Amino acid sequence: MAINSKRLEALEKMVDAGPKDAFPYYGLALEYRSAGRAEDALGVFARMRSEFAAYVPQYLMAGQMLVELGRKDEARAVFEAGITAARSARDAHAAGELESALAGLS
């Protein structure tokens, strides 16, 4: 899939500036994923889990990437952390998606 290099560059600059909000990080991780830069995307997701643990959407995307890479144990841990975050946020829909993804690892 072709990427928008200007969008990628803008997101990298935003993240380098250290925003106080998770969305630029999430956008950057998704851009890296689209560009086939899985390890870069996973690095951004790991940073997000550290700095923005309550940002629920990150867990499903990161877990799915890990599954695609055959890293099921890591995916399991990410899905489980996401379920906890979704429940804390009272986001039943996201919790259900993460539980389904987790069940699919068996």
At a glance:
The chain contains 6 helices and no strands. It is mostly helical.
Describe the protein in words.
With 106 residues, the protein is an all-alpha fold. It has one domain (5-103): Serine Threonine Protein Phosphatase 5, Tetratricopeptide repeat (Alpha Horseshoe). Helices cover 75% and strands 0% of the residues. The longest helix has 17 residues, at 72-88. The protein is globular and about 40 Å long. 29% of the residues are buried. The model has no long low-confidence stretch (mean pLDDT 93).
The total count of helices amounts to: 6
- Class inferred from helices and paired strands: mainly alpha
Which percent bin holds the helix content? over 70%
- Tally of strands: 0
Based on the coordinates given, report the CATH architecture: Alpha Horseshoe
CATH superfamily grouping: Tetratricopeptide repeat domain
Mean pLDDT metric: 93
CATH topology: Serine Threonine Protein Phosphatase 5, Tetratricopeptide repeat
Q: In CATH, what is the class?
A: Mainly Alpha
Per the principal axes of the C-alpha atoms, what is the gross shape?
A: globular
Number of domains: 1
- Extract low-pLDDT stretches: none
